[in-house]
Amino acid sequence: MNEAKAIARCEEAAALLPPRFRRAALQMPDHRKQYTEEFRLRAGQPPAALLPEGEVTLPYFGADSRVTPRDLAQMVDAVTDYSRYACAETLRQGFLCLRGGFRLGVCGTAVLRNGAVASLRDISSLSLRIVTERIGLAEPTASNLFHAGAFQSTLLLSPPGGGKTTLLRDLIRTLSLGSEDRAALRIAVVDERGEIAVCAGGEAQMALGTHTDVLTLCPKAQGIGMVLRAMNPQVIAVDEITAAEDIAAMAHAANCGAALLATMHASGLDELRQKPLWPLLRDSGVFRRAVVIEGTGEERRYRVEALLP
């Protein structure tokens, strides 16, 4: 993302903050706006911006710079158009997907019904994430994920915060659009936590291509079977494999002819092979390629490795 666009995205996010903190966010110097990843509001604390090097307190010009519960409640009401009920399903899971491609993390007091979280009250913290989109990022990598004209199931690897979801998002877009050398592919995205497409009102806020279908807020193991039956995908994309049932669902989809595109936390193949889920991944035979993400920020490198023969 170029500097001007990054600054503009930060200012769009700042416009969602409570009015008394909006000015503080907009007063940040451009070199901080450019790299802001999140705005953080915590009851009893001053507002902060999350940068790659850590959190910095926002400049403030009022009498009291501390966030109040009222500020937090006002922000949630404003971003939900004063209809929390309409967003109850995601709110009870601790987040809201907002128009413009922003994601609001929510902490507070959980209200339990029959042992499950039904809602959140007494909101204590908010994290406004500026979801990044880097159009064209995946194009140099995509051509290395095909064999004899067919897309090879691929696993994207990096440590937490290493850029997996950003690469995944643009790979989906690239495969969905196709190119002069590759036909467009039908992609089904099972977006369990709303982080890939950032759907708001049923519309993806991120660019995912013209042949992409999105199932939001459905557990991966269930969603993979649903899109396989309903949408006839050529590729199914998911974020963060974490459970054995995810791998079983992907193996079933692969046996039905769909390719898979997924992410997993690991710094490389050596760490991947030390993970408890590796034997299941290996024995499933689903993934043939891995993209190892190295470096940080603009210095990230993308290395394609053979995962299985």
Walk me through what this model shows.
The mean pLDDT is 91. 30% of the residues lie in helices and 29% in strands. By secondary structure, it is of the alpha/beta class. The protein is globular and about 65 Å long.
Question: What is the straight-line distance between the termini?
Answer: 36 Å
Largest sheet: 7 strands, mixed
Approximate strand percentage: 25-35%
As a whole number of angstroms, the C-alpha radius of gyration is 20 Å
- Stretches where pLDDT is under 50 for at least 5 consecutive residues are none
The DSSP helix count reads 11
Label the overall shape. globular
- This entry's quaternary arrangement is single chain
The strand count comes to 17
- Listing every helix as H and every strand as E from the N terminus to the C terminus, the arrangement reads HHHEEEHHEEEHEEEHEEEEHEHEHHEE
| Average of pLDDT | 91
Secondary structure class reads alpha/beta
The helix content, as a percent range, equals: 25-40%
Biggest β-sheet: strands ordered side by side in the sheet: 13-10-14-15-9-16-17
